[in-house]
Amino acid sequence: MTTTEPVRIGDAVWELPVGYRDGMRVPGRIFATETLFQKALEDRALEQVANMATLPGVVGAACAMPDIHWGYGFPIGGVAATAVDSDGVVSPGGVGFDIGCGVRLLRSDLSFEEDVKPQLRELVAALGRAVPRGTGGRGRMSLDEGGLDQVLREGAAYAVRRGAGWDEDVELAEGSGPLSDPQPEHLSERARERGLGQLGSLGAGNHFLEIQVIDEVRDPQAAEVMGVFQNQVCVMIHSGSRGLGHQTCTDYLRQLDPLMPSLGYELPDRQLACVPFDHELARSYLGAMDAAGNFARANRQVLAEAAREAFAKTLSAGAKSLGLSLVYDISHNLAKLEEHEVDGKQMKLCVHRKGATRALGPGSTELPAAYSAIGQPVIVPGSMGSASFLLVGRASPQSFASTCHGAGRAMSRTAAKKVMPGEQLKKELEAQGIVLAGSKWKLLAEEAPYAYKDASEVVRSCEIAGLSKVVARLRPVGVVKG
Amino acid sequence: MEDLGLFGPGSMAWRIHGDPSSLIGGLRALLLQALNPLAMAVMAQSSNFAADPWGRLQRTSAYVMTTTFAPSRAARAQGARIRTLHSRITGLDPVSGRTIRANDPELLTWVHNVEVDSFLAAYRSYGGRLTLAQCDCYVAEMVTAAELVGLSPGDVPHDLTALRHYLDGATNLQATPEARRGFKFVLNPPLPPLARPLWAVPATAAVAILPARARRLYRIPWLPLASSAVRPSTFALCRAMNVLLPGPPILREARERAAAAA
């Protein structure tokens, strides 16, 4: 008997069979524990998983991470792999608007109670001053047209060359260098204009810079390799490509829309607009996307340097002597050309990850030598006062070597009921020992930790499903919010 | 496969726009939209807001119902009509004397965001409880509505946080004489005397969920307690309407199609 209902096929793996909706070419595959799966059912994001499965040339399965929720065309938390050498397509909606958005983690030689707690308030205030934030915020590093071109081609290396960071920052980050095929010439004037003033700014929304403390180490060996230890102070930065990436996504969607009827695809949702790889627009989008991804990395590089300076100034010591070195930097909104085995066949695929993180396993040649033994570090940001996680990848063939990217909103009704005025929230967070940099408190009302899913259930799902493994948990003590 | 429209059953759009509280949301949106002097200028000089705010409210409401519940083709046709309409409408900025186009993206973004925020506010106060995940989902669904009026998806918020940031950043609000006239009219519509007390409920309910600064601009005397007092009776009225009234035809038809397809 065939079924069109979701089926549980593993401890934390569910399948949406082909036939769940018309036009599916492959099944949908959702990684989630029972609890999170039930919540995903309440949301309609599963429909979007089924929609991803209708993309031309999609292979294997349309995957969804446990933190899945409704997004533009593709769900946030979705992974779709399409065949590059046959009938596959690339879709800007599969990457999202904040191209290259991701997370960066700095470690330190500081332990919280002794070294930082006494000066926490000053430190958070210094970070608040050093980090431009909000929608219109001007970035810390000014650029001319030539400089912007270099950022788009070289990513973080450009910022380091201008003095914002250390050489090792580039080597240790994802890919150990810029994204492979940036083509700045495929960015619009408007996108460039928006990028010129925004390098080194946090942005708004759920972006943040936090001082965090490692409050639990679950994999001591991997932790040691990454230089993290119990009670250590770390800095986490969650930001993206700002207006430049946003504009780029918009530009390509606008170009694709009138083209869609001529391509003859039958798609259940216009927002899945896509283009085959042999089309000129596919190549220019991918080139523009890599350029925007490089901008995002450079942006986090400049922000990290701002954090180092704030620490150095407040604690009256050099950033090097404080050990503020990079653990890793990883994106969760990108499409990448990768080799994967599908049904016993090695294939060149374009893996769209939107709100999902690459999670290579130990031994991968794409990792920096330092991490080759443990697998790809994956940084999962919590939200506004909730815990963040440091994981390592497991290269699961079921998910095209991907794992989760965050917590997502809580689904419980009690959480929504508990919404409190921003001032009160600030007091409550401060009562828990979390210091917040001056921000718009009234906007925080719906940003309380209980408004978000517990990231621990999300990372647990990924661990059970074999996508990644938890190394450490980090709790925030100082928050600078976008 | 049955065409259940751009959103479909189970969507937040169906839930929120199909609830009687959406009338209050529409009213609140209109009152708030009018506080942007440029939006007001366009409305005043074209859609006759000051003389016929009632008509504008009805047209907006019909538009929202069609784009939400009609089959996709009809919804898109409605979108195309509104885009054509907007492309012909201009207003005059009373301050700079500059011509403002109704399809100016900044203006459309203001109108869109206020509408999304207002339907959400009305539903959460008088319709039912939503989780924050559901609020995010509604804001994300409404990106489709923004595209229908010709906005590009990058122009509008995709979640509640971004919507809050946008609205908080709207600093140019003022109650122009036209806005005040429209406001009076909305509160005292040309209804037969016997029907007026009935109108007082949604009108007061809309005022109760306006942002405090909007009430200040309109110089409405208000006590914070008043908002809490309005809530239970309006909530009860909306529930009763949901049970007793069949809803507009377009909503009934959409629900019948959905039931047949299920």
Folded structure, characterized:
The complex is a heterodimer of chains A (482) and B (262). The longest helix of chain A is centred in the middle third of the chain and has 36 residues, at 280-315. In chain A, 31% of the residues lie in helices and 23% in strands. Chain A is an alpha+beta fold and 482 residues long. Chain A has helices spanning 34-42, 45-52, 112-116, 120-130, 145-154, 156-161, 167-172, 189-196, 220-226, 242-256, 260-263, 280-315, 413-417, 422-431, 455-464; strands at 7-10, 13-16, 28-31, 62-69, 76-83, 89-90, 102-106, 208-217, 233-239, 275-276, 326-331, 333-342, 345-354, 357-358, 377-380, 388-393, 402-403, 435-436, 468-481. In chain A, strands 7, 8, 9, 11, 15, 16, 18 and 19 form an eight-stranded mixed β-sheet that branches. Chain A has a seven-stranded mixed β-sheet with strand order 1-2-3-4-5-13-12, with helices on both faces. Chain B is globular. In chain B, helix 2 (21-33) crosses helix 4 (53-69) and helix 2 runs antiparallel to helix 6 (105-127). Chain B has helices at 12-17, 21-33, 37-47, 53-69, 72-88, 105-127, 132-148, 160-168, 177-187, 196-208, 212-217, 224-244, 249-261, and strands at residues 90-92, 99-101. In chain B, a hairpin with a 6-residue loop joins strand 1 (90-92) and strand 2. The longest helix of chain B has 23 residues, at 105-127. Chain B is 68% helix and 2% strand. The A-B interface holds A 22, 43-44, 69-72, 97, 134-135, 204-206, 246-247, 249-250, 253-254, 270-271, 408-413, 415-417, 419, 440, 442-443, 446-447, 451 and B 1, 10-11, 129-137, 140-141, 143-144, 147, 152-155, 158-162, 164-166, 168-169.
Quick summary:
The complex is a heterodimer of chains A (482) and B (262). Chain A has 482 residues and is of the alpha+beta class.
Write the SSE topology.
The complex is a heterodimer of chains A (482) and B (262).
Chain A: E1 7-10, E2 13-16, E3 28-31, H1 34-42, H2 45-52, E4 62-69, E5 76-83, E6 89-90, E7 102-106, H3 112-116, H4 120-130, H5 145-154, H6 156-161, H7 167-172, H8 189-196, E8 208-217, H9 220-226, E9 233-239, H10 242-256, H11 260-263, E10 275-276, H12 280-315, E11 326-331, E12 333-342, E13 345-354, E14 357-358, E15 377-380, E16 388-393, E17 402-403, H13 413-417, H14 422-431, E18 435-436, H15 455-464, E19 468-481
Chain B: H1 12-17, H2 21-33, H3 37-47, H4 53-69, H5 72-88, E1 90-92, E2 99-101, H6 105-127, H7 132-148, H8 160-168, H9 177-187, H10 196-208, H11 212-217, H12 224-244, H13 249-261
Antiparallel strand pairs in B: 1-2
Helix pairs in contact in B: 2-4, 2-6, 2-10, 4-5, 6-7, 10-12
